[in-house]
Amino acid sequence: MSSNTPSSSAGGVGSADSAAPRRNSKRPKYSKFTQQELPACKPILTPRWVISAFMLVSIVFIPIGVVSLFASRDVVEIVDRYETACVPDNFRNDKVSFIQNETTNKICTRNLTVPKRMKQPIYVYYQLDNFYQNHRRYVKSRSDSQLKDNSSWDDVSSCKPEDNANGMPIVPCGLIAWSLFNDTYNFSLNNQQLAVNKRGISWKSDRDSKFGSDVFPRNFQNGLLIGGKRLDPNVSLSEQEDLIVWMRTAALPTFRKLYGKIERDLQPNEVIQVTLENNYNTYSFNGKKRLVLSTTSWLGGKNDFLGIAYLTVGGLCFFLALSFTIVYLVKPRRLGDPSYLSWNRNPGGH
Amino acid sequence: MKRYVYINDDESSHELFCDNRISNRKYTVLNFLPKNLWEQFSRFMNQYFLLIACLQLWSLITPVNPASTWGPLIFIFAVSASKEAWDDYNRHLSDKKANEKLVWVVRQGIRKHIQAQDIHVGNIVWLRENDEVPCDLVLIGTSDPQGLCYVETSALDGEIDLKTRVIPAACMGIDFELLHKIKGVIECPNPDKDIRRFDANLRLFPPFIDNDVCPLTIKNTILQSCYLRNTEWACGVAVHTGNETKLGMSRGIPEPKLTAMDAMIDKLTGAIFVFQIVVVMVLGIAGNVWKDTEARKVSLDLVKSLYAKFIDWDSEMIDYETGIPSHATNTAISEDLGQVEYIMTDKTGTLTENRMIFRRCCISGVFYGNEGGDALKDTKLLNAVAGSSPDVVQFLTVMAICNTVIPIKSKTGAILYKAQSQDEDALVNAAAQLHMVYVNKNANILEIRCNGSVIKYEVLETLEFTSDRKRMLVVVKDCQNGKIVLLSKGADEAILPYAYAGQQTRTFIEAVEQYAQLGLRTLCLAWRELKEDEYQEWSLMFKEASSTLVDREWRIAEVCQRLEHDFEVLGVTAIEDRLQDGVPETIETLRKAGINFWMLTGDKQNTAIQIALSCNFISPEPKGQLLLIDGKTEDEVCRSLERVLLTMRITSSEPKDVAFVVDGWALEIALKHYRKAFTELAILSRTAICCRVTPSQKAQLVELLKSCDYRTLAIGDGGNDVRMIHKLISVLALVEEKGCRLQEQLIIVLESSAFLSQYSFYKSLVICFIQIFFSFISGVSGTSLFNSVSLMAYNVFYTSVPVLVSVLDKDLSEGTVMQHPQILFYCQAGRLLNPSTFAGWFGRSLFHAIVVFVITIHAYAYEKSEMEELSMVALSGCIWLQAFVVALETNSFTILQHLAIWGNLVAFYVINWIISAIPASGMYTIMFRLCRQPSYWITMFLIVAAGMGPVLALKYFRYTYRPSKINTLQQAERMGGPILSLGNIEPQPRSMEKEVSPLSITQPKSRSPVYEPLLSDSPNSSRRSLGSGTPFDFFQSQSRLSSSYSRNCKDN
């Protein structure tokens, strides 16, 4: 065949000289990566593996659940719902007009009994129900630049409908600020004033970098509709901690916001007298108002959910592990039996 | 419509016809942007996203920043646009290279070197040996005194053997110098894409010749992209230039290829769109109840598509090129690769190596080469040659001179042969080794050196091989004794019946059969002495016949027929054409995997069938049956088509391999008039052989299957396959030997792409469901729980990286796949990616959304329910779940998988810490705050356990008690036990070879022998099919399969 080569190679020259070098350069370099030959661990779901995984989860989760539950139970919480009780009987049928009437007496007194010893700090929250702070138009109705920086005080474009009042920009503008919660609470214990520390209830980061110390309320609550609390125009926004707390919108329609801290221990059966001013209008949307005094644990406030959920998940995993074990023992099945392959069952029949 | 081409007229034609600039470009600088955007937006998916993105510009209804949609949208578009631009640029470069190539063209009577693109119609172009033809030319002169030249037309029709072209009679004998000044007119049809026809007339102006009109045929032309071979120079008149050449006309426009996965995703996007509308309606009504007048608009926005947002964008960005040493010119191919149902393959150079070797022969009933497998080393034969046994000498003489080979003496004195066909080359070389050396050809005088003595023959007539006659005829006159001898070689069915009455042809039939069973290509050699007067009489008729204009070929054949009788059959030769390594095995496995194989070849039927047999393409009787569709007229084709269809329907239930064979002519008719029947046939048949098909028929076939919604893969190597491949979804170039590797790749790719889109679907849905749930507790107002930055990052980064690595996931090892190729069948037709698995993922995403949402809002209730915190808790919950979902779906963990899955989780925290450190960002300090809370971590673990527990349990249950086929194989593979092979999986036929066939001891393993007498009893084929044997069958080899649409014919 040697003498044959010229003719065949002559035929190949044209195509080879253009294609060959390129083809070579295209060939990827060998590496374990390109050849998909990286050392690999290939776990499969063997009964032992799966059962022990479930077992492990239940072993870890049940103690955590117990601990969480205990932590939650350790938290002492006093909750007082007052939005109905604080409306005089004669206004019970028309709560909205009561709250909108500026002349009615909004002062209301509540007595709270401490069920267990409460260690300081005791957090004072107000809780609103059915209040959709997460509503889209509500959430967006604010101007962060205005809050932060005095120079952009007239940046109210995003604040509709509370952007301007009497032709002037509002500072702080927007629905959120406008609807600032304005019930007030005064606590006394045995006729002694119980000091509520309202400093440091907001996030430090908010005070430092979201709310400017040179921004002062201006033209606020001057419109036709008064939404909520009025702000002292002489106090900069960075010190208006109630506003700062309120502006951290809640994601859920039921939420608590920090009102202040009581920095002393409360003993069991002590009775706290709360003098509250019931100003905030939740009546037009059937919102509930609660006053909450609560201690705290490493897990936060009183919330049994995590503990119960952990116990449930742990229990279910245990149950699954158990039932898998039983099924495995009762009806063992060999893994990877090729006779399960359909083409092995009826040869040629695909 | 005709065009008149004035030869060598420098002025006239410039405006009439385009210049020779070729352009395969899809875009120009100006139209790139609009055209590309138009193409991208012609996908429903992209329209949908555009709609969404536009809606987001309307700030009233937009919960998230428009940038979160526009950013990725623009990015993705930019990526695919740049890919297109790059492809187009490369096309442009190769065009440019071709356009700027320098060629010799006559200008003002002088030969000049100009760029190919400046050739105008009417110019005379000079070509040297091995030059590429820059445009369609009508030959007017060659270096050969006979006016012949040889061209390689592989870029046109894929046939790598050399074709002869001849100058028109009118130009015969024009002096070299005068060719520069030649003037005339060519009347030729307007450009078309038929590469087999060129009906034109040439008239030369005085002083060259009288005013006779000389008819031109395709024989007188050399077409663009052919190569001039074995001819020192040739010159011709440009008649078609630029994109108007035959090749240019048949070039398809590269369309953007939409993969099956894309199509599926488009459908799903449609479904999601409908789903959205429904949700919008429901929520809109709910919102109204909630006394929100704008709720409808707002909810439109809420539902706004977060789903689906990035469903396939991920998958399009992935490049699978790393896999095998192959080059995927289209990065989207691999999805389809896994779902291929039809493979259409070219034969020559793809399945076979195309290296012909003379192996055995049978001379006058004596078998040579049977013992050693190589007749050239058979001492019996060598002795016979040395002893000048007359039979053997005659045999060798025919071998040496009954051909169109041209011997050339090299400087060293060795003789080289230039052959048009590999078969002839093999025969002449074998004869030379057996001391029958074909020394020289001088005009009509042949010189043969036999055992030291030189014998001269004068060639009187030659009739080259035609596929109809299946034999070649040479009439020579022995210069020594003046005897006139007719030599013939051809297929057995074309020779043996014409043996003289007394001759026993039984041994030859046996020989042919035996050789055919070994997969060798057989040729019968015969001769007959002619009487002087018989020849003279015949010669006149022959001359007359060869000068007719109508039906010339047929007339000549008829005349020759008169001479072809009373042959003395000398013997049978057997030539081996090796299949490429591993071809039979690969085809066998692929066929087991349920992939239908079609062989499309320009070859003749017998050759095609033979190759098909030897590479397990079709099974021998009685397991297989071969049906033939033929016929010259519509009726015949129709009848035979119906007959085949009927047989096909009957046998479709039997486990029998039924294949049909169709030739180009019948195919043409079938595709034109009986498209429906043919389509049905195509669907019924698992195997088909289409022979003598043209490139555009290949393309038509592919289109036919595509229109039936089958995934088709075309494999080819030549320019003739380019069109077929253009029509296709998938283009690939792979190294043939890696065929097995490809299989394994198929599954991996398939799995990962299925996983990919399901996963994208899942991860988007999780977020969407959470958003929907959140809308119920935010007054159905459409507040987004997540901020825009988080969403964008979630979609683009956090959840894409693990998926990128999942591409490298390996379900099954190579070995397992090879043992159980059927698994591929299971993967076909999108069985892994179908609405029900999507429903599964849908359920999973719903469940996970519920888990994340419920746990988050309960664990972060009351005083903790701050928006930013809650949103981050929910998002990290999703991220944790994603990580575990990916981990659970990953089959093999390499370091990369670990890195991507867990590194991604870490990256999430790192990135969020960084963002949390920026005072200006909305989530300033949030992440630090969260990470300090024990409750955050406890919540995360809870989400993971609650989310993954049931999923794991379910998966375990199904894996163990309702395993899919892949699962079972995985288990088998990793339990380490031996994988039992039952049923029809084994054994490979090759292993039986040595025990059964005594003849094939030295046969290389590349053949799989065929034991049964093939096809002999099937109704529509005959034993004749076995006799192969045509000088022009096999082309020179291109051992690599390669094709790519960017590498166009020009460049090939």
Question: How is this structure best described in words?
Answer:
The complex is a heterodimer of chains A (350) and B (1052). Chain A has 350 residues and is of the alpha+beta class. Chain A is 33% helix and 16% strand. Chain A contains ten helices and ten strands. In chain A, the strands form three sheets. Chain A has a four-stranded antiparallel beta sheet with strand order 1-10-3-8. In chain A, strand 6 and strand 7 (192-194) form a beta hairpin. The two termini of chain A are 46 Å apart. With 1052 residues, chain B is an alpha+beta fold. Chain B is 43% helix and 17% strand. Mean pLDDT of chain B is 70; it is low at 285-335, 717-750, 828-832 and 977-1052. At the A-B interface, helix 1, helix 2, strand 3, helix 4 and helix 7 of A face strand 18, helix 12, helix 29, helix 30 and helix 31 of B.
The fraction of residues assigned to DSSP E strands of chain B is 15-25%
Shape category of chain A: extended
Number of strands of chain A: 10
As a percent range, the share of helical residues of chain A equals 25-40%
Cα radius of gyration of chain B in angstroms: 35 Å
Per DSSP, the total helix count of chain A is 10
Considering DSSP H and I runs of 4 or more, what fraction of the residues of chain B is helical?
40-55%
Q: Give the neighbour order of strands across the main sheet of chain B.
A: 16-15-25-24-23-22-21-20-19
Report the total helices of chain B: 35
Q: State the strand order across the main sheet of chain A.
A: 1-10-3-8
Protein name (chain A): ALA-interacting subunit
Membrane topology (chain A): Multi-pass membrane protein
Transmembrane segments (chain A): 49-71, 308-330
Region (Disordered) (chain A): 1-32
Helix and strand arrangement:
The complex is a heterodimer of chains A (about 350) and B (about 1050).
Chain A: H1 5-26, H2 47-74, E1 77-81, H3 95-100, E2 107-113, E3 122-129, H4 136-140, H5 144-148, E4 164-165, E5 168-169, H6 175-178, E6 184-189, E7 192-194, H7 204-210, H8 241-247, E8 255-262, E9 271-277, E10 288-294, H9 305-330, H10 342-345
Antiparallel strand pairs in A: 1-10, 2-9, 3-8, 3-10, 4-5, 6-7, 6-9
Helix pairs in contact in A: 2-9
Chain B: E1 2-7, H1 32-41, H2 44-57, H3 67-100, E2 102-107, E3 110-115, E4 124-128, E5 136-142, E6 148-152, H4 154-157, E7 162-166, E8 184-189, E9 200-204, E10 214-216, E11 221-222, E12 227-229, E13 233-240, H5 246-250, H6 260-289, H7 295-303, H8 313-317, H9 333-337, E14 342-346, E15 352-363, E16 366-368, H10 379-386, H11 390-401, E17 406-409, E18 415-418, H12 422-433, E19 436-442, E20 445-450, E21 453-463, E22 471-478, E23 484-490, H13 492-495, H14 506-517, E24 521-530, H15 532-546, H16 552-563, E25 568-579, H17 583-592, E26 596-600, H18 605-614, E27 624-629, H19 634-651, E28 657-663, H20 664-673, H21 675-684, E29 687-691, H22 695-707, E30 712-715, H23 722-726, H24 739-776, H25 788-798, H26 801-806, H27 814-819, H28 822-827, H29 835-859, H30 867-889, H31 895-916, H32 926-932, H33 934-961, H34 965-975, H35 993-996
Parallel strand pairs in B: 14-26, 14-30, 26-29, 27-28, 28-29
Antiparallel strand pairs in B: 1-8, 2-3, 2-4, 4-13, 5-11, 5-13, 6-7, 6-12, 8-9, 9-10, 15-16, 15-25, 17-18, 19-20, 20-21, 21-22, 22-23, 23-24, 24-25
